[in-house]
Write a structure and sequence with these properties.
The structure is a single chain. By secondary structure, this protein is an alpha+beta fold. The chain has two domains: 20-124, no CATH class; 129-231, no CATH class. The chain has four helices and 15 strands. The chain is globular, with a radius of gyration of 20 Å. Residues 1-8 and 12-19 have low confidence and may be disordered.
Length: 231
């Protein structure tokens, strides 16, 4: 007599903390990105000042596997769709903003939707592994990565050169290893680039406004980053 072994269906696996199944993750996976070139921003609020709106520059727009398009921003230690921000003070997404005309809107621009859908239709690509590179786009908003160091300085700021989309839907901030640069300028795909998120000393991403304040030794900025760096 044969004993039947029931193999669990991987699509029925539920992730403990998110409550999502494999199917949910596949449908929400980012499959294509395009850079934001018109300085559009994300608006958000948090519990500390519920009556005040904050803004962050959008680095790119992402097309999900299910066809949805969202703006994406560097947020703490990763780049995420705007609707998924997770602020320590219960931050929540409130919309998009065009600072040039002070217009607030809630749906992605039609030209970005068309760009992503057209590109996805043209580049029908089946990756061979989860960490295969699908795209790489330059950073256009002055993002910096914060890394700890064993030297006398407590941390260092490194400019993000580009953003790399992998087949598993994650987006990596790429930094330049100056010791490996053989020619300049350092272009997309250069061997001297490495992922910030994969570096053991990586902590956070900051946009240029905060990064410049840190470089200028602004007391409030230094106090804020000290709180973040402390365990």
């Amino acid at each position: 007599m044969k004993t039947q072994v029931n193999t669990p269906n991987k699509d029925n696996v539920v992730y403990l903390f998110s409550g999502k199944t494999n199917i949910d993750f596949e449908e929400n996976k980012i499959m294509r990105i395009c850079p934001e070139l018109d300085a559009l921003e994300m608006l958000y609020t948090n519990d500390s000042t519920p009556d005040k709106l904050y803004s962050l520059k959008i680095v790119c727009w992402g097309l999900r596997e299910n066809g949805e398009v969202e703006g994406m921003v560097p947020w703490l230690n990763k780049i995420v769709p705007c609707s998924e921000i997770n602020d320590p003070l219960n931050g929540s997404w409130e919309g998009y903003r065009d600072p040039g005309i002070d217009d607030v809107f809630y749906e992605p621009p039609k030209h970005k939707i068309l760009e992503l859908e057209t590109a996805a239709e043209y580049y029908k690509y089946v990756p061979g592994s989860d960490d295969e590179i699908i795209q790489e786009i330059p950073d256009s908003i002055g993002t910096h990565a914060v890394l700890t160091t064993d030297l006398s300085e407590r941390f260092m700021l490194i400019e993000v050169s580009s953003w790399r989309l992998l087949a598993n839907g994650t987006v990596q901030g790429m930094l330049i290893d100056e010791d490996k640069v053989e020619s300049t300028p350092v272009l997309l795909g250069d061997p001297s680039l490495y992922s910030a998120q994969s570096h053991h000393s990586f902590k956070y991403f900051f946009q240029h406004r905060i990064a410049n304040k840190i470089k200028e030794q602004d007391p409030e900025a230094l106090a804020a980053i000290s709180l973040l760096m402390d365990p």
